[in-house]
Amino acid sequence: xxxxxxxxxxxVSDLDAAHAWYAAVLGRDADAxxxxxxxxxxxxxxxxxxxxxxxxxxxxSTMVVExxxxxxxxxxxxxxxIAYDDPMSTPSVRLVTLEDPDRNRLILTGV
Length: 111
Hints:
By secondary structure, the chain is an alpha/beta fold. The chain has one domain (6-110): 2,3-Dihydroxybiphenyl 1,2-Dioxygenase, domain 1 (Roll), CATH 3.10.180. Helices cover 21% and strands 38% of the residues. The protein has helices at 15-26, 70-80, and strands spanning 6-12, 32-35, 38-42, 47-53, 62-66, 88-89, 94-99, 105-110. Strands 1-4-3-2 form a four-stranded mixed beta sheet, with helices on one face. A four-stranded mixed beta sheet has the order 5-8-7-6, with no helix packed on it. A hairpin with a 4-residue loop joins β6 (88-89) and β7 (94-99). It is globular.
């Protein structure tokens, strides 16, 4: 296999509530609504995230997103009222865990 792109996906029960939360976390509205029940944010031509409305599976997803400056992102999240756990440090990276309205995890990593 030679992957040429990746879309990480979270399953949600209420697409409108998830849309609002992810738009606040990601700092912008979704880039695409390619079909009913699906929203996408594109980070590049090759990568992004999707929200898929699937109430039966909602709340069991985890996505990891690397950011350029974790402290800048946390300051921005504070301004828009997004709660998060205290950052954790590893030998190579820092990370923070967020939970969307369905309790899916979005982990931000950075330095």
